[in-house]
Amino acid sequence: MVNHELAIGIDLGTTNSAIAVWRNGQAEIIPNSQGKYLTPSVVSMDDNEQLLVGDAAYSRLITNPHQTVSAFKRFLGTEKCYLLGEQQYTPVELCALVLKSLKADAEVYLEQSIRNVVIAVPSYFNDQQREEIHRAAVLADLYVVRLINEPVAACLAYSLHLTHEHRFLVFDLGGGTFDVTVVGLQRGTLEVLAATGDHRLGGDDFTAALSVFVMNQLTLNSETVPLADLSKIFQVCEQAKQHFSTETKIILPAPWNQEIVVTEAELEQIWQGLLRRLALSVKQVLFDAHLESKDIDELIFVGGATRLREVYQMVIRQVGRFGRIAWDPDLVIAMGAAVVSSGMTVQTIVGHSLQV
Asked: Residue 138: which residues within 8 A CB-CB, separation 6 or more?
């Protein structure tokens, strides 16, 4: 990377993606063309065989589910392909389309060409998956300055003020994946001490479980309900999930036009199995790091699904301390990637040396 060239940080998420840049001594989130800080990691083909990415594609998950794909990041490193129109697309090619869209948004916002990028990836990504991220970036006309592990990026956003040893537990529950990582700060170096998770578990699974409950209340069979109607129920449950209280009403539009009340006790039962899987991973990562809960100095929540009260309370019970929810759980990884993308040493940024 040429030193004077501006670089950006990207969180290429399974459900949503975000971009940030280091300017004026701080990480700045870059909005997309719709003025939003999160871009759905969704690709669709319209009736004119034009590819749509982001918000335009997301809106078609309900209206055109057969021509819309999401969560393809899960299948990097596999042979899986997706059919859009008459053409097959690999996960690499779909990720490249998202990266290309993010690049375009950054160039409009920053009013200059962008080529250099730091991309955050899950800690569990193997060499093949990391290489495919590089390939996706090349297809998007981007040069990867560095790949950084997502939990390290999250910790970086919090550790700039620290000069002493520190242990973080990063609990990252996004829409499509779950990771829990113990990161240690020692002698100016952030290091992953242990990591585990479930690559097939995320906030969408909580929505899906709620959708099953709703369908049971409506006595609907998922095998006979049209895909567009299933998508509609999922979207309604997703919106309701974000605003749950002790008793929540799920208002279903046509063709049902019904109101379903979900109590707190019912919600705990609906999500019991998912919460148990999360709790087991927290126990496992502490065991793998040879630590006890009392050894954790700071608990950081990352990912939009950590806003769910039931998830937050479960982690608090497991670790035995209150955690810090990121100032925006959806954006903190992109902000950490932006710090690295600055091209400056962290010593220049914050007055002390910190390697990542």
From this structure: none
